[in-house]
Amino acid sequence: MSYVLSILTSQTYSSLVNKARKVISSSDRCRRVLEFIALSGLSVGEVLEAMRLYHTDAEGYLNRELMVLEHFKYPAIFIRKAKKAYITVIDDYMLGQLEGTEPMTYNSLSLSVKRRFGSDHCPSIFRKIWATFMRRRGIEPEVIDLLQGGTSRSHSSGSTTDPKSTRSWVRSGGT
Question: Which of 48, 82, 119, 135 has its CA 20 to 30 A from that of 149?
Fold first, then answer.
């Protein structure tokens, strides 16, 4: 069983989980994209860009030593005024999702999900499940917000959003 399916086994958010299980059980290529959204906490557009970048510049984008996608190297895509995704920590399963999925457009993903489930709003469910899962595992809201690219008022300026500081946090195991 994949890591994402183990996340979805919690009975506490039953309506979200039931929808997510239905979407994840699909066998088409959008399933891998949706799983990556669930495992990364990134938005749909960010995941699609991450997959495209991985396929065009894996050596420059993936830090294999830390198993981190380094979004900060592509500020035009990931560092915006209201949302700044600096890194995504990945594991071998997520790396397999990146390697096994050809890049797709937002429109093709949206149409595939809408055709199958009658709504194209399902992917946002996965970000919510990821954030809730992380919080219930004791991860502080500021760290969750940082990993999802949020720029809430709770972030202090300085080292909290500095990529070098973030790398140090990853190396320390998130402690």
Answer: 119
Structure tokens at 78: 């990931």
The neighbouring-strand residues paired with 168 are: none
CA pair distance 108, 125, nearest whole angstrom: 18
| HSE of 143, CA atoms in CB hemisphere, 13 A | 19
Q: Which ranges of the chain have pLDDT less than 70?
A: 1-28, 117-123, 151-175
Q: What is the pLDDT of residues 44-62, one digit of tens each?
A: 889 999 999 999 999 999 9
Task: Please state the three-class secondary structure of 86-135 as a single string.
Answer: CEEECCHHHHHHHHCCCCCCHHHHHHHHHHHHCCCCCHHHHHHHHHHHHH
Domain limits, the chain: 3-171
CATH number of the domain at 3-171, please? 1.10.443.10
Instruction: Assess contact for 131 and 30: CB atoms under 8 A.
Output: no
Nearest to 39 by CA among 111, 106, 104, 88: 88
